[in-house]
Design brief:
single chain; mainly alpha; two-stranded antiparallel sheet
Length: 197
């Protein structure tokens, strides 16, 4: 169920869901994006192996392919050295590890060819427990700004929803019934609902 609000000449759409609605939406989106877990596993190996240059390049390609814009990887690889890509991914991971998502976003945005949408996709796959994607579907559907601040607001909102879903009035994570909701799961459910999946 959506609600439209008119304020200062702008229309803002907000979503009112039950906890079960989030579970259903996540389940639908997970089936639509089966490659997600594979790229998450690749990111985990990248982190464990301390970001080897060639694997960093492969990761950029796979993230952009996962986001349905493989040409973006070509721009990033063409416009940045392998050393710079490695450095910025390592920096982003370090900031995510220290709960500094704004600085992590700045690190990936330092790579020529990445915008907030695809920069945040890299963060989300590097750290599914601490990062989300802020793409045009979310921005257009909910009115978050395409900026570091907009990203921070959306992440904070997703963290609040995650905490609710993991609480006593929440709903089980339909993908991993024994595991808690991750912040990226909340974002994926929102994305699924906005796309009508």
């Amino acid at each position: 169920m959506t609600k439209l609000e008119v304020s200062a000449g702008r229309i803002r759409c907000t979503i009112a869901w039950t906890a079960e609605d989030f579970s259903k939406a996540l389940l639908r989106n997970t089936y639509a994006f089966l490659k997600t877990r594979l790229v998450e596993d690749e990111a985990a190996r990248l982190i464990t192996s301390r970001f080897p240059r060639k694997e960093c390049i492969t990761f950029v390609r796979d993230v952009c392919r996962w986001g349905n814009r493989p040409g973006t990887a070509g721009l990033v690889i063409k416009n940045n050295s392998e050393a710079d890509i490695q450095k910025q991914l390592k920096s982003a991971w370090k900031h995510l590890s220290c709960n500094r998502p704004g600085e992590a976003l700045d690190a990936v945005l330092a790579l020529d060819g990445l915008d907030v949408s695809f920069g945040s996709k890299h963060l989300r796959l590097l750290s599914p427990d601490k990062a989300v994607v802020l793409d045009s579907i979310i921005r257009d559907g909910l009115g978050y700004e395409r900026s570091r601040e907009g990203y921070g607001h959306f992440l904070a909102d997703c963290l609040a929803v995650r905490d609710f879903l993991n609480g006593p009035d929440g709903s089980p994570n339909p993908i991993d019934l024994k595991g808690p909701w991750r912040v990226c799961d909340v974002e994926m459910a929102i994305y699924s609902k906005l796309r009508g999946l």
